[in-house]
Amino acid sequence: MLLADYSLLRHNTFGFDARARYAMRIDSVEAACALARDERIAGMLQLVLGGGSNIVLTRDFDGVALIVDIAGKRVIGEDGDAWLVEAGAGENWHEFVSWTLAQGMPGLENLALIPGTVGAAPIQNIGAYGLEMGERFERLHAVELATGTRAEFDREACAFGYRDSFFKRDGRGRFMITSVVFRLPKQWTPRADYADVARALENSTKRDAQAIFDAVVAVRRAKLPDWTKLGNAGSFFKNPVIDAAAFDALKQREPDIVSYAQADGQVKLAAGWLIDRCGWKGRGIGGAAVHERQALVLVNRGGATGAQVLELAEAIKRDVLERFGVDLEMEPVCL
Ligand code: EPU
């Protein structure tokens, strides 16, 4: 059904009241394929929306919003040392992670409570607490919007990077992801080195996947705002990576800077720390503000617009560049 003048308020976790000229709910692969032959929307701009947890809507959308609602979770088999499980793109990510644990197939527990849908997860290669989705990814199924043809992407074709993939670059706006297949190793090993998680596990004697899941949920609840109460899109900037020489110079000036050495010799900085150091925590412009407990998260305190959030982001970028000589890159997609 084609809906006209549709509010996207419930479809973006920042809670911006932008409107789409049209919207359509897509609940099957067949419906996704049929879009290319639908004369009512021919030539219109199209915006594929999952949970809307990584988008900043700065204006009304003069096109058709395609709301992905493809359901289904199943174990599709085993492949030597791993279980293969598949989920429809519209499934809620956190519920899917819980379901895999209930099946006795751990491996995604570090990614518990990340807002959004299964279909959106590969786009920015979601990651948290020592794990990136790409490490558990097998393949995905998609439909090319312009032609209505089905396509399959393996890990290589997805070109996963840090909060990055083919779908944020050359593939941007061209495909609707319809389902994702994950590869969960039968030989499970815990990932519990991340400082916050290790601390949360200190009081527990268990080290199984459920204990890690619970620890991650507790850490996220303590640090990150719940978007249903305070609109946000998670980390607003990527953690910047700089070369070793630039880092050494910076470390001289800022001895307690938080950094992580990378395998290739470069150094990743904690953007939250940089922003915090510039004094931005809790400050804002209009209804747009920097979260009080995690400076990397920008929030909608109520009544903010996407444009205000971008204005705030620009002011933060300027300060960080001026003080540290580091250029921050925005993480969510901007419309
Ligand atoms: N820090 C501060 N002040 C702040 C925020 C952070 O000093 O206001 C310091 C912390 O004390 C810590 C360091 O910065 O030493 C890193 O902070 P944290 O562990 O909270 O993680 P992050 O680097 O800010 C990243 C991801 C998050 C992910 C966490 C845990 C990015 C852009 N963000 O945040 O991902 O949950 O690590 O793995 O990589 C997201 O992408 O939306 C997201 C929430």
What would you say this structure looks like, in words?
The structure is a single chain. With 335 residues, this protein is of the alpha+beta class. It contains 8 helices and 20 strands. A 5-stranded antiparallel sheet has the order 6-7-12-10-11. A 4-stranded mixed sheet has the order 1-2-5-3. Strand 8 (127-128) and strand 9 (131-132) form a beta hairpin. It starts with a strand and ends with a strand. 41% of the residues are buried. The mean pLDDT is 97. Uridine-diphosphate-2(N-acetylglucosaminyl) butyric acid binds at residues 128-129, 196, 223, 234-235, 238-239, 258, 270, 272-273, 276, 281, 294-296, 331.
Task: Give the topology string: H per helix, E per strand.
Answer: EEHEEEEEHEEEEHEHHEEHEEHEEEHE
Percent of residues in beta strands: 25-35%
Mean pLDDT: 97
Question: Count of DSSP helices?
Answer: 8
Shape: globular
- The structure class reads alpha+beta
List low-confidence stretches: none
Radius of gyration: 20 Å
Distance between the termini: 24 Å
The largest sheet has its strands arranged as: 6-7-12-10-11
The small-molecule ligands in this entry are: uridine-diphosphate-2(N-acetylglucosaminyl) butyric acid
Task: Tell me how many strands there are.
Answer: 20
Residues in helix, %: 10-25%
Reported for the largest beta sheet, the result is: 5 strands, antiparallel
